[in-house]
Amino acid sequence: MEENERYKVSRSTMALEPAQHPLYQTKISDLKGTYYTRKSIRMLLNEACLNGGAGYSGRLESARWLLKHYKKTPLLICPLQRIYAFPTHSPKSHECMWIFPRHLQSFDDATHTATFKNGTKLIVNCSPHVFHKQKGRAADLAIKLCKPDELRSIEYLSFRRPLKK
After folding, report:
1. Distance of alpha carbon 37 from alpha carbon 28, whole angstroms
2. Which structural domain range is residue 29 located in?
3. What Rg do the C-alpha atoms of the chain give, in angstroms?
């Protein structure tokens, strides 16, 4: 278990989840390893949003307005780096995990396991229906906020074939 109190959400972040530990609030799955921090998930997301130009509340309000969806709303964390995430539960819930779809490779509906492109597996605490719906909402948000020539770079948000030219 590696502690990292200076961790910043970035393009290499795969997931944030409650730590279930007496000292740490958040378990971070990153391409570079697994870390634990005393910071809450909300604090990590807010810091990342602020680094991207607006706070968590503003990003959430924008996403809700664009999607017309007000519960378990996905989050555009940094538009310049195209960092998106979606929650598995209400962000107010202590069970809520945040998944960063850029790194997803597949999802096993039977075992509720997300497999990331680097081979990391994560058991997700929501139904397959919720997982796929949330992933779709994150894709919708990405599409609404990208210019047409940027759409190719967000095909990772779905497990479908790449877009044709």
Report:
1. 8
2. 2-157
3. 15
Size of the chain in residues: 165
CA 148 to chain centre: 23
Torsion of CA 31, 2, 89, 142, to 10 degrees: -30
Q: How many domains does the chain have?
A: 1
Residue 163 lies in a domain: no
Among 90, 94, 126, 93, residue whose Cα is nearest residue 107: 126
Of 134, 30, 139, 147, nearest to 80 by C-alpha is: 147
Are the C-beta atoms of 135 and 104 separated by less than 8 Å? yes
Does any domain span residue 42?
yes
Each residue's pLDDT tens digit, 1-16 = 788 889 999 999 999 9
Asked, for residue 45, whether it belongs to a domain, the answer is: yes
Per-residue pLDDT reduced to its tens digit, 56-78? 999 989 899 988 888 999 999 98
What are the φ and ψ backbone dihedral angles of 146, each rounded to 5 degrees? -105, 150
Query: Is residue 48 domain-resident?
Result: yes
Alpha helices in 52-127 (DSSP H): 56-67
